[in-house]
Amino acid sequence: MTKLSTLQAWVDQVAGHTLPDAIHWCDGSDAEYQQMIDQMLADGSMSKLNQEKYPNCYLHRSDPTDVARVEHLTFVCTDNPEDAGPNNNWMTPSEGHAKMDALFAGCMKGRTMYVIPYCMGPVDSPYSRCGVEITDSPYVVVNMKLMTRMGKNALQRIEKDGTFVKGLHSTGDLSPDRRFIMHFPDELSIKSIGSGYGGNALLGKKCHALRIASFQARQEGWLAEHMLIVGLESPEGETHYIACAFPSACGKTNLAMLIPPDSLPGWKVWTLGDDIAWLHLDDDGLLRAINPESGYFGVVPGTNEQTNKNAADMIKHDTIFTNVAVTADNEPWWEGKTDGEPAIDWQGRKYDPANGKAAQANSRFTVAAQNNPSYSSLADAPEGVPISAIVFGGRRKELAPLVYEAKSWEHGVLVGAGVASETTAANVGEVGIVRRDPMAMKPFCGYNFADYWSHWLSFADRGNKLPKIFHVNWFRQTPEGKFLWPGFGDNLRVLEWIIDRCENRVDAVETPIGYLPNPADINTTDLNISAEALTALTSIDRGQWRAEMASIGEYLESYGDRLPEALRKQQKAIAAALN
Ligand code: OXD
Ligand code: MN
To answer: What is the pLDDT averaged over residues 162-188?
Structure first.
């Protein structure tokens, strides 16, 4: 129940259409969380993991066809297809509603409808925005409790603001034929049916905090981005905050929780967010970031003491695991775990390598951000943190150097627009295909990319001390398939160079694609890396880059008339310089 009549009317109308047996307004309390967990343990949709070694950890096994985001079933509904752009699947709002309303009719019969008021961002921040998700999935409720500030306090803010994003979700019958994720940006609303997978069902995350928020951000003059936020404290006690955009499953969580290598003593790393950043210019023209989320929905495979010790420690308690394997001792297990062995696979079958991996490639942990040993309390600061550098990156076997710096904000927008990466298991479909993923937002920009780039470009005139923009690539390989750079904690060596550039403490080599480091300026103390590898990582192949710039040019031109001239100019200037 709420005193906000628009919210009450919407809840009543949804209930009248979906016909649930009961309605539960979530208060966000710990008692409610436990009661929902107990209910799922009783009905078998959740099971207890070894409580001695993994206290308060639970396992959920999803429907085997429902393990990732479904970009081909995700739509942006606008009157004019040009507003959604070639980067989105499109329908008119009336078609979208008709399709979804037919699927939602009576779909909650025999189920409870949960009403989840939530706030994306600290409840007392002017940069935060609220939403209400209606769902028939208790799994969604407990995940939303870990991932967002939800319940009573959020409802109070919604009642005060009088506005909220409407998100309607049902697992439906989980049939991939009746699975759709639809966005109605003009109405600030979302309808999602047929999937319980986080990226499709936790509507605060990709649907609200990226697709709808990106649209809202353009109207209101800010940015909603697929970026981690991390604070890097130097041995001298100076902290820089950086925001990094990498495509899904390319190591954002690992970078956000990085543990400095022993050979960089005195450095400390503070995590503010691992997936989404909302960036606002403050009154002084400084770009400030908040993380709208308050938990992590991270990829499990590969997580261990070496790759991400903070995450490995953090998920030993109070964590929901989805689609991992278990050992004979009922501990969670995944590929890349350094101890134990799988007894039961992610589908609940006796583990048999003939059936493939033990844990699903996109198996996930959900955990409150405060569990993270490197959690920064500034993640709760209403004013957010000032951003010194924006870093784009992709997973590229070849071409892209370890790091380079854009020459200006406009050039940086081109660098972001040109991001390409190999596809990963976070979306259904083939893995390892290189595709353009501008600003790592290909699956998440809620409107035409051309308009989005114009919006990014508009910051050049509005910001006072805009961050510098960089591009990194941790994934370069030799022709034999060996990684050239060790990655993980050693990525701090590259971030150190980035900070030095922000502070004008180090020179760089000018090339047509941007400023590259002098190899000697990358700290390689105690690093086992050959001079040839370092040279390969810090140089460019002009022939390959000519082809890349031509391909970026073609890609940009596919946006037609809406493509901002300033971006075209940047691309042409670099292509000419490479010739
Ligand atoms: C995620 C994704 O889950 O990007 O964060 O798919
Ligand atoms: Mn993501």
So the answer is: 98
